[in-house]
Give the backbone structure.
Amino acid sequence: MKGLATPWETLSELTAAGTKSAIIDFLDLLGADESARAISRLSEEGRHQLFSRLGPEEAASLIEGFSDTQAADIVENMPLEQAAAILDELPSDQLADVLAEMQDGASESILASMEKEGAAEARMLMTYAPDCAGGLMISEFLAFRAEDTIRDVLKDLQENQQKYNSYNVQYFYVVDSGGRLTGVMRMHNLLFYSRETQLGDIMITSPLSLPDTASLNELKNFFDEHKLFGVPVVDGDRRLVGVVLPSAVEEEFNKQKTKAFLRLSGIIGGEEFRTMPLMARSGRRLSWLSMNIVLNIIAASVIALYQDTLAAAITLAVFLPMVSDMSGCSGNQAVAVSMRELALGLVKPGEIVWVVLKEARVGIINGVVLGILLGLVAFLWQKNVWLGLVVGGALAANTLVSVMLGGALPLLLKRLKMDPALVSSPLLTTVTDMCGFFFVLSFAAAVLPKLT
């Protein structure tokens, strides 16, 4: 008996034989998440055929449901004209994000095939870092002059209703002849004044705004303080260049958390999905794993230096991984605190000494407590007080080293213009392993007759 067709099998059949309306109805029935799953399981040819059947506007609506990495992977492999037509329909901020995920050659070819206005906006947005106001803003906003009347505004809205229909408009802005922001008005203000009233007479002057260089934390703090539907973004000359929505700030925060998690988990080449090409996925993982081989060889070399000590007191082998692992956990806690404080602006990359001193206090207390616990376990197991002193002392010393290093590494790497999330964890693991092995084996070598 044949089983029920999967959503992607049904979608493939509808793409091949169904009507456009049947495809749209089926995708609506699936919902956004299940639609994304079904589309991702189609072959590359099947996706191209699906988006061709739907048309650019409907295809763009589906693309919006994918992550930027997935969307770029899908669109980058489409015929050039089809890709350009679909991207032309995306909101400006997402368009820039998707293009930024592509290879430079592919993105430039698509931009060259797009409408000039949309391509120019995308190029402008791509000049900004993705986590600042310029990188998060949308360029779809309404701006008028102070001498314009309510009648002028209503006429413009009526004439461009199809274009403005996709805009997320809660306010419209007032600019001077040079495009500099001078005022703001709510849309509902259009209802309460005569048609001949000039905007300059009723606008809110000196409106709140943020520079295009404002950081993600500055944006978050702004929206925490001001419960607005959006904030205008101005350049160095106070020209209005875009608007940032609260939802964009929240989404970017979630992206940052996801990226940090992936990097700490060893996915350092960007997001990975199982629908991506096999060799691309393999390469992204190997870049991390290959580096770890080298780091682990360095850590293992410490054991080789003390192999005679380890052979004479083989019981130590039981405690080596415990000392390195528990110290590593302590160090990772310190890394997490430093990463968080860097993100919030509570600590600067130059404050390494201050951070190390703060962590040293915690390391001494926690090291002594953990060392006593592990030393007691060693003593009760082998009835050898010297073994307890060796492993307990080693854990205490290594905990102190690991928390100081864990606190300092993110700041040091940030100062060197490197990604703290990318390098802190493997460096910390290697150093805590080396130090843990060294402390255990060197302490044991010093009292070897007492252990044997």
